[in-house]
Prior knowledge:
It contains twelve helices and ten strands. It has helices at residues 6-23, 27-33, 38-46, 65-77, 82-88, 91-94, 96-101, 104-115, 230-266, 278-307, 314-340, 352-363, and strands at 121-124, 140-144, 147-158, 165-171, 180-186, 192-194, 208-219, 223-224, 268-269, 272-273. The two termini are 29 Å apart.
Amino acid sequence: MSWDTPERQLLRATTRRFTEREIVPHLPAWEEAGELPRSLHRAAAKAGLLGVGFPESVGGSGGDPIDVQIIVEEMILSGGSSGLIAGLFTHGIGLPHLVAANDQDQLDRFVRPVLAGENIAALAVTEPEGGSDVAALRTRAVRDGDHYVVTGSKLFITSGIRADAVTTAVRTGGPGAGGISLLVIERGTPGFTVSAPLKKMGWWCSDTAELRFDEVRVPAANLVGAENSGFGQLMTQFAAERLGLAVQAYATAARCLALTLDWVKIRETFDRPLASRQVVRHKLAEMARRTDVARTYTRAVIDDWMADPTHGDLVSRVAMAKNTAVAACDEVVDTAGNCTAAWATCVSPRWSGTTATAASSASAAAPPRS
């Protein structure tokens, strides 16, 4: 599949202009504040970027997963951070289950307002007792008439501070994968509390929280899909999430490489630019190689996933794409730090979004971002 059609070139240009105008001048302040303003969501919706990848019939802008990843790539290449992507596009993991379930009431109440930039959605799976072992989650939802009574907690929830509606994995049946369901739990429901923001090594502007549920009564109308079908719904969407993280990682590597190239051309030691040193050139070549390999492999896996998402070896290839890209990001950012020396340790508009991302990307190689 082509990643460089005329339409996608226009999409890149639109994303680049939006990033340079609406994001880059404000990003350092947002990183320090620890969250993104809601006005950014409205601006992204007005620009037609927030709803890309979602059907127009549910309030989206149309397009496919490649279009979504082109926006991610270009935002990072134009000066955005991976944390910005996580915070602005959390609905990319919070809404797909609702869209697939196609309940018109849920689409009207939860999906359309988010894609319009008015509300924020999140996904809550990870718990304090476990992360990647989704089948072992403990948050319990017991049916009581027209409601479910939810008790438990979730941890490391992206956009958990700001979210208006959280698609939450709960246990409605017995142990294991067969007893899990998805419920949308709304901000302000009695018994639903949100912790103070969790401070992280990177992804600063992506607010992250622990959510607690103390006998929270959730309308049964907020059940997504059939009861006890939640594990399958989650697994279906995890491939898209992992591939999205892979794109963020190789795009961050590419951004770091570009910044490093600019720096070594102007930085002089002993009356010669760093770019003239053979050792530095070797490092730059290896940075470029790792970035290109990660980009090429990730895009190939995305193409195959779109062609046949049920292909037998795709689960392992998706995981390998994510780990390959994250490893490349880690190495490239580390080498950039060696080349730029003290600048890489400073919080600055050019570097804070890239050097701080490496630690977050590396840790993201294992647990889901939810």
